[in-house]
Design a protein that fits this description.
Pfam families: DUF6702. By secondary structure, the chain is an alpha+beta fold. 23% of the residues lie in helices and 40% in strands.
Length: 168
């Protein structure tokens, strides 16, 4: 069962969220929460700043520095483009697009805020999360789904980057 690697990754992630610039573990956490009153899925992706910066430099601009006052519009444009390419969500078998609300930096983590609006009937949700798999072969992505009365977590790896949660 994949519960033990998930627990290990979660513990290691929390241990290595320190101010240290170097880390030995490559983990992101994406939380997807359904807000019934707003009929929306609210998404927060947490990615180590140094890993995200390395990726954005390789993909888009070698001079990118992820810092609060640096070239906010271009950086957010690159972040949005990359996340749209690597984070895919299907509701009831249909692909849905999200709005990139913005980002912020806390300690050594980038928090990216996303939202999918006008969602009222969810029978299933499928998430494909391949964030950073293209630059970090040891990357692991945790997806936490909080919908209705269900709280489920999944550990996604480069050879298994998809999870599905069905509702009856």
């Amino acid at each position: 069962m994949k519960l033990i690697p998930f627990i290990r990754a979660l513990v290691l992630f929390s241990l290595f969220i320190s101010s240290s610039k170097n880390h030995d573990y490559y983990v992101s956490v994406t939380e997807i929460k359904y807000v019934k009153e707003q009929k929306s899925l609210q998404i927060i992706s947490q990615i180590f700043i140094d890993d995200f910066e390395t990726l954005l430099r390789k993909r888009y601009d070698e001079n990118i520095v992820l810092a609060p006052d640096n070239d906010i519009k271009n950086i957010e444009k690159y972040m949005q483009r990359y996340i749209e390419d690597k984070l895919k969500i299907k509701i009831n078998g249909n692909a849905v697009n999200f709005n990139f609300i913005g980002k912020e930096y806390k300690e050594d983590i980038t928090y990216c805020y996303l939202e999918i609006e006008n969602i009222s009937d969810i029978k299933s949700i499928e998430v494909t999360n391949s964030l950073l798999f293209d630059v970090l072969p040891d990357q692991q992505n945790i997806v936490r789904l909080k919908l209705f009365n269900e709280n489920k977590s999944f550990l996604l790896l480069p050879d298994n980057d998809k999870c599905v949660l069905n509702f009856n």
